C-alpha cells in the first residue's frame, strides 16, 4: 500500500515509522532540519515498546515528488488541515483515502469542504509522542491506538483492509460502531486538559490532585458535553464519567501536546479546542463560561505566537 505521511511530527513520525518498518511503501512530508536529518540518518523512533530505526526513508518537502497514494495520514495540527487539503488535491485520486489524526471535533468537516466526500475518513489516535530532535521521534507513554472509520460508520472493505494493515504494523487499530462519538470522547479529554494545562503549566495529574483545579476540569468537560449533545452527538453521562476517570489516571508527568505548544510559545490548537466550544456555544445558544475564560486568557499568547 502506498502511504503518504503528511507531517512527520510525534504522531505522523511514529505511525509512519511503524508502517514503514512493517514493509509498507511509505513516503514522508517533512521540513527543514528534520527533513535533512531523516534523509541523512533515517527516522529514529524511541518507544516504550522498543526503539527502532527506519533506514532509506522516502522523505521530501515537495508534494510534486510524491506518487498518487492509496492513503494519506495527516500528522499536522488541526489549524493546518485546510491548507494541507488544498495542496493534496493535486496528487490524490478518487480512490485515495485521507485520514485525519488531529485532535479536534470538526476535522472531517474541514476536509469535506475541500476534498470529495469519498476521499475522507474520520479518525484520531491515542498516543503520547513528540519530535524530540531532528530525525528523532519519542513515544514516551502508553500503547498507541488508531481509531477510524467511514463517515457513515459502514464497515467497508477499504476500512477493514486498513485495519488489518495497521494491526500488522505494531499498533492497535479500532473501527468503532460510532466514530463520531469516539471522536468527541477524545476531543473532550484533550480540550478539557489542554487549555487549563496551558494556564497552570503543570501536568494533568497535578491538576487533578488539586480540588479547585479538578472542579474546573469537570466544569470544562460538562460544557463540552452540552455542546456535543446539542449537535446530535451521542455523548452521554457515562462518557463524561469515563472522561473524568481517564483524566484521573494520567501520570504526574503527563502533558498534552497543545499545552506544550502554549508553554513553548508556539502556535497551538487553542482555537480548535476551547475556542471551538465557545464559538459553537454562541451559535447554539449555550453558555460556556469556563471554556470562554480559558480561551480568552490564553488568546493573547496565541496571537503573539502566530505573529
TrEMBL record:
Gene3D superfamilies listed in its UniProt record: N-(1-d-carboxylethyl)-l-norvaline Dehydrogenase, domain 2, NAD(P)-binding Rossmann-like Domain
Residues annotated as domain Ketopantoate reductase N-terminal: 3-152
Alphabetically ordered keywords of this record: NADP, Oxidoreductase, Pantothenate biosynthesis
Major enzyme class: oxidoreductase
Pathway given in the UniProt record: Cofactor biosynthesis; (R)-pantothenate biosynthesis; (R)-pantoate from 3-methyl-2-oxobutanoate: step 2/2
Keyword Ribonucleoprotein (UniProt): no
Ketopantoate reductase C-terminal domain ranges (all copies): 178-299
EC number in record: 1.1.1.169
Catalytic activity line of the entry: (R)-pantoate + NADP(+) = 2-dehydropantoate + NADPH + H(+)
The protein's role, per its UniProt record: Catalyzes the NADPH-dependent reduction of ketopantoate into pantoic acid.
Record-stated family: Belongs to the ketopantoate reductase family.
Protein name according to UniProt: 2-dehydropantoate 2-reductase
